[in-house]
Amino acid sequence: MKYISILLSGSMLFFACGDSQTNETTTDIVSGGQSVMASAESVTGGPEIVFETEMFNFGKVKQGEEINHVFKFKNTGDQPLVVEAKGSCGCTVPEVPVDPIAPGAIGELGVKVNTSNKRGQTSVTVYVSSNAKSGKKNLKIVGEVLTEE
Fold first, then answer.
1. Which end of the chain is more exposed for a tag (fewer CB within 10 A), N or C?
2. CA distance 81 to 48
3. Tens digit of pLDDT for each residue in 35-66?
4. Is the pTM of this model over 0.90?
5. 83-87 sheet: strands from edge to edge
6. Cβ 119 vs Cβ 149: under 8 Å
7. Can you list the domains of the chain with their CATH numbers?
8. What is the pLDDT of residues 111-147, one digit of tens each?
9. What is the spatial distance between Cα 53 and Cα 140, in angstroms, rounded to a whole number?
C-alpha cells in the first residue's frame, strides 16, 4: 500500500511539473491512507517586468544639455529577470543592470540622452527586451530642446 501511495504521488508530481500555467492549483495527495489537500504553484511561471512609469517628460532644455533619467522596475515574477536595452538613436544610451534581478526585487535602467543634434519637440525611445513573460517594452523620453537664435 505504501508503494502504491509513493508511486501515485510521484506520477502526480511528474504531471504537475509539466504544466506551464502560472495559476495556483490544488492537488489531492494520498499519504498513508489519508487524503491531504496541498496547494502548489507552478515552478514555470517565469520572470515579469513592471515599470513604475514608461514615459519621462524632461520639459524644456537648452540644446547640448544631457538628459539623465532612471526608469525603476520590479521583477514581479518568480524567477530571475535579465534585462537588455537599446536606444532608438546614437544619442540615447541605456544602462542596464549587469546582474539578474531577483524575484520581488527592484531594478533601475538608466538612460542618457545627448541633445546636441536635437531641436524642438523631441521624442526618443528605449527598446527593452528581457526574459519576461510579457515580452518587449518601449520606454519614451519626450520634451522640448531649445536652440539659441
1. C
2. 7
3. 333 222 333 589 999 999 999 999 999 999 99
4. no
5. 55-62, 137-146, 120-130, 83-87
6. no
7. 2-41 (no CATH), 49-146 (2.60.40.10)
8. 999 999 999 999 999 999 999 998 899 999 999 999 9
9. 10
